[in-house]
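Our preliminary data section would be incomplete without showing what the modeling component actually yields. Below, a chain of 485 amino acids is followed by its predicted structure, encoded as tokens that our downstream tools consume directly.
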Amino acid sequence: MPLHITGAADAALIELPWEIPLSAWPEEHIAALPRGLSRHVVRFVRHGDGVLAVKETNPEIAHKEFEILRELERHHAPCVHPVAVVSGRTTPGGEELSAALVTEHLSYSLPYRALFSSALRQGTLKRLIGALSVLLVRLHLLGFYWGDVSLSNALFRRDAAEFSAYLVDAETGAMHPRLTDGQRAYDLEIATTNITGELLDLQGSEDLDESVDPFEIGERLEKKYHRLWQALTEASTHTSNIRMRIAERVRELNELGFDLDEIDMQTTDDGTAIAIRPKIVDAGYHQRRLMRLTGLDVQENQARRLLNDLDEYRAWRGGDGDEHYAAHEWLTAMFEPTVRAVPRALRGKLEPAQVYHEILDHRWYLAEASEDDVSLPVATASYVKNVLPQKADEKAVLGRSLAEMTAELPALREEHGDSYERADPYVNDNTHGWGGVPEPEETEPPTVRRQSVLGAASAEGDAASPRSPASADAAGTPATAPSVA
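Predicted structure:
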């Protein structure tokens, strides 16, 4: 059977060494990135300017998972991007090899085991469980039954002070028009069992903080799921102040990070009340608002934090005027200069929005310790100097003590100032000068004088070559032509 690649419009994929078992691929193809636990052989592979995740499995499972991931992407679900399925793999000796599912590596993401260095702490774990419960609710709203919910089958990205979870393994999943309560309950039961087991494994290897109870964390996922599902789907009945109740329900969903596109309202049987039920709910309320105002495409909690800073900036500027204009001012005066102040060599550590969020946190710590206001440029310089180079997970202030960092604030203020230098808004814009009349030239245009240099011929050949630049200069004749007088 010949090699067959399905799904990718990338001819360079065929150049990868598919005739070799994935576990034996040469090191020049492998990207050293942290991997989670998997029942299959998985490798991160360098490909052009990016990184791919390649998983060996049987052809039926590979094609099924590929189609499920494509369907989830069409519904804007948080999941990895499917690239291709590679089947028909054989060794040079004719031995059949497993098929391979190829997905894009999710940048800035980590498996949960890579989010701790010595012991997974309770605070970190609760945020991971919160992110996983949101992911599970979102998938269930789309009609996706996961079938193998666990920390190992998800990837996590930093999202301001929280995490966002992404589905990375969908081979046991299935899409349905709508999930029954029984399907949801069974998926949740699997999640609780798997997560409790994973944490017991960590406990056995002493990689779990002693204060963490694995059974309590499993129950926490279940409680968080039910609370969120109820807020997003259940009907509420009201007898008065209907407009206010609807506004409160919409605001509650917005605070959870969801948009309410449609709502179903109907009177009760006796006509004394109105039942309100969300009909179409979509995640990403703050993401879309920030995108609409600034064009920044970030995660939900990052967007919430950036919007708060934008609102504070607008209030500090007086709070008047168009919201879009204030957003543009904030983007050019605050966000972009802060991100540019990070040295290029350190920009790959965190996403720009996450860096900005952490600088705001760092600024707060410095101001609290110094009992004085700290400008954003000074806070950025301190963060770049003291925090980002030795960045470690889950530590707000690292390395040097707060006392040492606050002691150097005057020197940083002297060096960096308390405000960013504003970039010329027209530096890349040639439209602002249209319609103007060009000023006349103040100097006369240069006169072009053309001269040629001809070599003297000699029958004997001793003087037959053209004169060299040195001899031409010695004779007072220019050595190049044409020349500008």
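Residues 392-400, 426-438, 455-485 have pLDDT under 50 and may be disordered. The longest strand covers residues 258-267. Preliminary results of this kind motivate Aim 1 of the renewal.
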